Amino acid sequence: MLAEDKNINVEEQIISYCKDNICSQDIKHPLYPSRLGAYELFRAHGLPTTRNEQWKYTNIAAKLEKIPSQSEIKPVPVNLDNFINNFEIVKKAKENKDSVLVFMDGAMQSQLSAVNSESKTISISSLKKDPIPDWAIKLNSKKHSQNVNELFNLNTALMEDGALINISDNGGIADTIYIIHVGNNDGFYNYRHMINVENGAHVNIIEFKISNKTNIEALYTSSIIWNISDNCVVNNVKYQAHNQITIGFNQQYADIENNTEFNSFTISSGSKLLREFRDINCNGSNSNISISGINLLDGDSHIDTMLSVKHKAPNTISREKYKSILNDNSKGVFQGNIIVDDIAQKTIAKQSIDALILSKTAEHDAKPELEIYADDVQCGHGATTGQISQESLFYLKSRGIPEEEAKRLLVNAFLTDALEEIKDKKILETFSDVMNSMLNRVSKGNLNV
Amino acid sequence: MFNVSNLTVAVEDNEILNNFSLEVGPGEVHAIMGPNGSGKSTLAHVCAGKEDYTVLNGEIILNGEDLLDFEADERSTKGLFLAFQYPIEIPGVTTLTFLKSSLEAHYKANNKEILSTPDFMKLVKKKAAELNIDDGMIKRPLNVGFSGGEKKRNEILQMALLDPQICILDETDSGLDIDALRLVAEGVNNLRSEKRSFIVITHYQRLLDYIKPDFVHIMYNGKIVETGDSSLALELEKSGYNNYTK
């Protein structure tokens, strides 16, 4: 069977799944119109194919044959709490009395979640809980009306749950919220978080997505929509380590107004196929943003990052710094697009994409693009792909450091300047244990450099 | 103690070392001089375990073991140290992290108890001070932005920490001004002992004014063609290699 034929089958299956889902929805629900509209758009356009320039290096049909089967009842396992609490990051969150929102297979688990009751500036709700706050309904409609892409439409049509977070001015003392997501059962999951950061608010949002077991076959779409007002400071770190059979389509949208700092960093590993779509709009002037990340790939993993940063106002700064480490038969794709509107004078935009290949069969495709319509800007991009330097490796070994450890040191060194984009060092520290075990795994294997 | 015998080494089809032999006793300092392309740096790299070379014949014995049977890291922990002509810059790895990993690998391989971090810091600071290396330098990324003198002093600091039995100095004097040369040579002289031996590869007699060799060898076409005492280096300075390369 040809890959494109398979696509039609899985596409039909997804359309039929959407139809059943739409039929089961309450037509009076405030999100129903956007669901219905998104379903119709998805039905008309289907899944993206490699004919679409943005999907040139990733063939969904080759990776996704069918929707994984799922059971109707998904009991929360008794040991899930222990599993989550074993992570250093969760322990620290609880010690600090930060808000922790736990999701299992796309659904919020209130009994495992804890909202910081002392904070008067956080308001947390969920998509499943009525009534949906007005700001969330508006934000959802606004994004839907922009008809961004097929997978966003799919996510709009199917979203079941998600966190709705509003942060108001907290006088510069950042609230920290952890969103933990555990994949626990086979199935198809769709969730959407929406975050509204009001004028002057500071917030750290830490997302932590993990598979509970190696044999869970999950397909998911997720989206996170940020609406960030003036004079805010937002630090967002997402860590996702899926098993090698999970397929995920993540979408991040952010609208950023004046004098705001937005640092968003993604650490990704694992997955049969992971698509990271990030669409960032600097609508206001004097904002400073960093949209960066590291991808650690091994086995047959495929991670495709599509990043679009639009400068729509004068005097904004953006940095996009991505580093990927690829081992075994993995494939990394990075397409980065910086668009500078004609009114966005004095824009400074820098993009760098670097890949370190540790095996003979890994592949990395990078396509950086600049579209500049203003004449007084500083914009640049660069992409490199290389291997571990044999000279450096010999130098370290000549001092007694065994090869595996020497490679670890060099891999860490390669990642250093990207990790510096995580501005809050305390956040970086909380990731050190999971990062180390991830790095240990990825830098091992058949390192026939 | 350290015995290289009948070593023949090629890169692709070119033989660089040709039946090379050299015996170094405990505490001895051997200088190897020779024109460009005679194989001096190849000898240093092959002894340290660089993989770009094919060893066709011979052995490199240290304390009864043939180092050719071991990887570069094992050769280091068994007591061989190569001071690089061009120490490698590694951005993202601090000098301190590198020194700690290196020292711990040595202690681990030799079943010695690993130093606590405060004890390690004390040791590094003491050895660094002896070489006029300040704290700022060891906190910087390894060799990145170091001057020529700082890089070579850093090599000697590593040598002092790792306590090797045979040290090969590959043109350690290259790129050094007179003061830096004196400082590096003093560092080496402080490490001289009855148990530790040195092979000093150099183009210039000047280094040997500071590090007095017991033997001077002239290397040409991949083997030693003449051996003498320090007066041989002085003679080379006057008349060049012509008498030995015909």
Describe this structure in words.
The complex is a heterodimer of chains A (449) and B (246). Chain A has 11 helices and 19 strands. Chain A is 26% helix and 37% strand. Chain A has one domain (3-443). In chain A, a hairpin with a 2-residue loop joins strand 1 and strand 2. Chain A has helices at residues 3-23, 32-45, 60-63, 80-85, 88-95, 134-145, 150-158, 390-397, 403-419, 425-430, 432-443; strands at residues 99-104, 107-108, 122-126, 163-167, 175-183, 187-197, 202-211, 218-228, 233-241, 247-256, 261-269, 273-282, 288-297, 302-311, 317-326, 331-340, 348-357, 363-372, 378-386. Chain A starts with a helix and ends in a 6-residue tail after the last helix. By secondary structure, chain B is α/β, with parallel strands linked by helices. Chain B has 9 helices and 12 strands. A 6-stranded mixed β-sheet of chain B has the order 6-9-10-3-11-12, sandwiched between helices. In chain B, strands 2-1-4-5 form a 4-stranded antiparallel β-sheet, with helices on one face. In chain B, helix 4 (117-130) crosses helix 6 and helix 6 runs parallel beside helix 7. The relative contact order of chain B is 0.19. Classes of the chains: A alpha/beta (449), B alpha/beta (246).
